[in-house]
Each structure stands twice: as C-alpha cells, then as structure tokens.
C-alpha cells in the first residue's frame, strides 16, 4: 500500500533523536542508536550523524542513501555512500549475531506474549543462547542484488577470527552481489597487513574470492596459530623460525561456511626474510651431520626469498638460493597441500671437493632423503621473480577493475597463470624433482663417507 504514496506524494523533512534501543531476534545483540541527525525526501536519506553501539562494537556514520523510491516500487537499487569510523569492531560477534538471526523462526517464540513484555525482558529473551559466547565466523554472507554501496572505513581495535588489528582502514564497494576491498591496511598482532580483494556471491553454488595479501614482519608461529588456513596452503612456513615477509595473490572458490576450497586455489606466493633459523628436526640434523655443518643444532639462514605457484592442490617451489653454515644451496620442489613434498637440494659451494645433491621426500613427520649428484651446478638458477610479480600485478589490476572486467573473467585469467607458463616454455624449464637423481661415483661416495 505504501507504493501508492510514493507514486502520488512528495515528502521531505528532517529527523533527529538522542537515543533509541533496537531489539530483534534477527540480530540478537544489545543495539543502541544515538545522536541521529538527518534529512529525507521521497528518494533520499542524508545522514548528518549516527552512532551505533552493537554488542562490543561501535560505529559512527555519515552518508547518503538514495534510490528509496525506485526500490519501494520494486525496481532499481539502493545506493549508499558512507564514511564509517569505529573505536571497537568485533567482527566475530557481529557475524555470530547475523548467523543466529539467520536461523530464527517465529516458532521459537510460540506461546509467548511479546506485546506484554517489558523491554528488558524481551531483550534478555532474544539474547539467550546467542552471541555472548563468540561463535565461529563461518556463516555465509549473501550480498543483496539491489544494493550498491561505497564505504570508507577507519576502525580501531578490530577482531576477526584470531586476528587482532590496532587500526584498519579500507575502501569498500558493494554491487552486483560482490564486495570489493581496496587500499586495506592494518597493524595487527601478527604484523603489518596490506590487502585487496573481492568476495562474490552470484548464487549459493557460485561463491568466489580473489585477494592480494601482503604481511610484513610476521613469524611462522603466529601465522599457524592465528591463520591456520594459510598453514594449509603454505606448510613450508613450519620450516622457518624468525621474522618473515609473506605475499600471496590467488583466486579460489568458497563453500557455504565461507571456507576456501583448497583444491580450487590458483595463485602465487613469496616468503622472504633475513636472520632466520631452519626448524631442526631429526632429518635436518642427519643431513647437517653428513655435510659436516659447524653448528648442527642451530641452522641459520642469513637471507631467503622463496617463490612458488599454487595450482592443482600443490605449491610448486621455484629454484632459490640459501646460505647456510659454510654452504650455498640451490633448492626447488613440490609441496602438496596434504603436507607431503618432494624437494631437491644442490650443494653448489661447500668445503667438499665435489658438488652434492640431495632429494628429500615424504612429510614433516617422516622425511626421507637420498644423496647423489647436484642437479644445479652453480648459483645461476632460473629466476621467476619477474613472472611472479606479473601474475600479482595482473590479479591486483583485476581486483581493482572487478566490476568492469567481471568476476568470472578475472578468475579464469588468473587460473591460466599465463606469464609463468610462457616463461617456463621460453627457458625449457623442468622441475628438478621430476628428474631422477644421479648416483655418486664410488670415489665420491667414499670421500663423502670420510668427510
């Protein structure tokens, strides 16, 4: 019936109030709206000021909401342009409240006379068994088709999963059932973060994400503890102790619990750092003994940069150089996302009178190795840095132009990883672990045993 008035009447006015409580089983938190000031007409609401306190979170908003008339007449889009600031943003609790509201039905309150309840009684009832204890943030967020928004966010004390951010700033654009994040930076309990990405919900069976993620000054222990999903993709992190820089750019499918489907990940990664220590398990100590490391208990790495390609449920590690103890090593390999691996290590500089190669395989609990001839003869190994940077650059550009290019095209272009495949063909690249290691001569083997 309200559509008749929007067709036939023009309305305008202003509205303001000091404080209001909002209670709903569809969002079961203690919600307070205060310091509201705005104007409106048939098609637009201008927010001059609005403060929302919801559970542990607070938001201060200014902005404009347009398109009301067309939406109420069942055509068109709601368009929001907003500036949002927050001193506390608990995304875990907000998502848990959203999840609880999604599962609410009127039958939950059957037989209860809510009109006779005092506000406090009603609030306590809808809060029961909801989000005072934090739930996992695994509820599917479906982006409405008739919403278009541009939001600038500046928030302090942000919590999401086990990630705690002292400050986060981001630009968000919402339209076409997709959310785009750009210029997202944060100081976290893991390190400094820069992030750009998209999250698209075309249908419940067509959920996709893409991201360009950069962490600086992090430790492997913190990554594994607070972001276990990254540990699944990069189990190589377990091998290092110390301060790392982590870069990852990828696209992937998502399931209805907002979890990334590991077999669908396609992208590139880079792990770098200096003054690192290699995790010293029994197999590493055994190799250190054979090669006569000076310090067999603490294996230090002065400088490292590892690059790889993620596809087909595996991480292909491109050749890289390590300086360890008295040795210069060249390494490459395949790290499967089930934690099994195959690596080749060539000792290209050492006190040994000849070059030695080591093939490693198995997993981190049961690593096996075989010693033979080195497959890399010197430090002049294939370098994939430019190709990896090109993939990252192209995906970053796709993220920034996702609404012009389209989600499906961006994902399909990233899956091809054309730059890396073209580079492999141009240099006739063969992964070292795909070739059988040659055995040492009897004299070399004897010399190694004597060493």
Helix-residue proportion: 10-25%
Low-confidence stretches: 131-137
Give the amount of beta strand, in percent: over 45%
Number of strands: 19
Q: Can you count the helices? A: 12
Task: Describe the overall structure.
This protein has 451 residues and is an alpha+beta fold. Helix content is 23%, strand content 45%. It has 12 helices and 19 strands. The protein has helices spanning 2-8, 68-72, 91-102, 119-127, 220-226, 228-233, 282-290, 385-400, 402-405, 407-416, 418-427, 442-450; strands spanning 12-22, 31-41, 44-54, 57-66, 78-90, 147-160, 163-175, 178-188, 192-203, 206-219, 240-241, 243-253, 266-278, 299-311, 314-324, 327-336, 341-349, 356-362, 367-373. The chain has a 19-stranded mixed sheet that branches. A hairpin with a 2-residue loop joins strand 7 and strand 8. Helix 8 runs antiparallel to helix 11 (418-427). The longest helix is centred in the C-terminal third of the chain and has 16 residues, at 385-400.
Strand and helix map with partners:
Layout (H helix, E strand, L loop, with lengths): L1 H7 L3 E11 L8 E11 L2 E11 L2 E10 L1 H5 L5 E13 H12 L16 H9 L19 E14 L2 E13 L2 E11 L3 E12 L2 E14 H7 L1 H6 L6 E2 L1 E11 L12 E13 L3 H9 L8 E13 L2 E11 L2 E10 L4 E9 L6 E7 L4 E7 L11 H16 L1 H4 L1 H10 L1 H10 L14 H9 L1
Parallel strand pairs: 5-6
Antiparallel strand pairs: 1-2, 2-3, 3-4, 4-5, 6-7, 7-8, 8-9, 9-10, 10-12, 11-13, 12-13, 13-14, 14-15, 15-16, 16-17, 17-18, 18-19
Helix pairs in contact: 8-11
